[in-house]
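JOB MANIFEST
job_type = single_chain_structure
chain_count = 1
residues = 408
[input]
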Amino acid sequence: MINLEIPGRFDFLVGQAHRVATEIFRPNSRKYDQAEHSYPKELDMLAAVIEGMNEGGALRGAGVGAVGGSDGANGLTGDRAGNRNGSNMASLLGLIELCWGDVGLTLTMPRQGLGQAAIAAVANEEQLKRFGGKWAAMAITEPEAGSDSAAIRTSATLDEDEYVLNGEKIFVTAGDRAELIVVWATLDRRQGRPAIKSFVVERDTPGLILERLEDKLGIRASDTADFRLENCRIPRENLLGSPEIELGRGFAGVMQTFDNTRPLVAGMAIGVARACLERARELLEAAGIEIDYDVPPHAQSAAASEFIAMESDWEAARLLALQAAWMADNRKPNSLEASMAKAKAGRVGTDISLRCVALAGAVGYGEGELLEKWARDVKVLDLFEGTQQIQLLIVARQLLGKTSAELK
């Protein structure tokens, strides 16, 4: 059973991530929000720190803001009865701290990327050696395939010893800066979900064409790219997982990625929401508004009552994310819990950030405070890795025992 106390072995990791957030991310947060598409050179100084955090399991496979291995087998601690705390829990705790500092800068940290989570989830040993540790982005979304990943049209055709990729990918986080791009493509559209596989494409591969960089509402320090794949040829060894189309299995192999990364995206929203709560509390106290936990919320000021309600919502989201990450580390099926955590934290993050802006009034709306920036940044965490609506649909299907065809 999950223990709600944070494992002591992660204290150093959490402290290190918090120092990065405090000393590098926060001081540069506004700078790169206003200088979208400029590479944050300050992050180059983090190389040694990132290596240390990777060794501790904190950033293994970071991506869309998400990280984590496939089964938590790396760096496990705990009793032999199966209570393990591994890379998924470490990644979650590290990301909460980093995103308390700045989400956009977290997403553009070198040598991370959602693609590494896909590689960790389904790659073989040879592929792990070739691709491990590289900055890997993930290309899933297409103009005709957003939340419905099964509608992917990008094709992969085997031509002797190479796959030829053709199609279009949009909203690729860190796509322009990454070394690798993990592209989801179909081997045969007629066979539906089972034919969808993931392929590793080197960023400088001919035929992988950068179309444009998106201008965004939030996470402006992170680049978001659109690509066209035009007869893009890659070695057949760059296909992740089995090349066989296994009817009846769906596309479970590539979808394993989300079971690891959704709790971590939840952690990102939890980190931003915590930053909002802490700053709002400081502003309320400066205005003479006391928050007293020994007094029922209804007997306090409206602002104090609202703040306590937000804190309780935040704690619920945090515990759901911890549970989902713990299950991943302990090799327990966690698709339901991962979607619950993502849905709850995404909603809580956006809700808390906007309510904190409102509590702060005109002060919270201006650029003199980071509250307005956090409100813009956190919204994407309710969208990517599966929207709020998709997460609730997944939860409903699992609870009711319905298939995607039965409950749409």
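[summary]
The domain at 135-240 is CATH 2.40.110.10 (Butyryl-CoA Dehydrogenase, subunit A; domain 2).
DSSP finds twelve helices and ten strands in the chain.
exit_status = 0
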